[in-house]
Please model this.
Amino acid sequence: MRTRAPPPNLDFSGTWKSARGSVMALETSGNEVTGHYKSAIGEAEGEGSFPLRGFVSGDLVSYTVNFGRFATLVSWVGQFAPDDHSAPALRTVFIAAVNVEEQNEADHAWGSVRTGSDTYTKIT
Model:
């Protein structure tokens, strides 16, 4: 892998909405991103916001949300890429890990990690 200087960091600050209706408020400072995430799907739907922490490198971003009482961690990585109408868009893939109680791990741990993709558009 060759070494190269990353491009200037994009400011991801603002409110972003996913194609599935989840909303995140981001604040960028240097190469770090913080904020809050409100899920529109799953057990956490309508259960308030959860802290978000991550990193920025050029027009790339990665962030993780701990859904605390739902025993779930989700991490996203994505790239800023305007949509077909030149609107600000963030195209991501995610990996979600859901805790399986110890007594059930032998039979159910295989299904505790899920992956997917989502696109976020900037709404403010």
Remarks:
- The longest strand covers residues 89-98.
- The beta strands are 14-18, 23-29, 32-38, 50-57, 60-66, 72-80, 89-98, 113-122.
